[in-house]
Amino acid sequence: MPTQIHLGRYLSAFAMIALGAIGLLSANFLMEWTPAPAQLPARAAWACLHGAVLILAGLGLFFHKTVRLAALTLGSVWLVWMLLHIPPVPRQLARRIRRCL
Hints:
This protein is about 75% helix and about 0% strand. The protein is mainly α.
């Protein structure tokens, strides 16, 4: 079992580092984070900061001493993005229901 946990941790770390690198190189939010508001002040700076956080947290997943802090950081980032996307959900659901009627 510990081998599977380590494998999952390492795969997650590689994925976070890759996503962070893509975000830094493109200076833009990507994939599930694309709906970040276009009018966000200093959008490119926020995108680069987000990429850097993903890279650092991904690197933190590799080391036993920093794995908890890295996991907490990633969870916090994902929680913030989830909370930013909750307001549009009721509107989208209402539109889909209206289309079905």
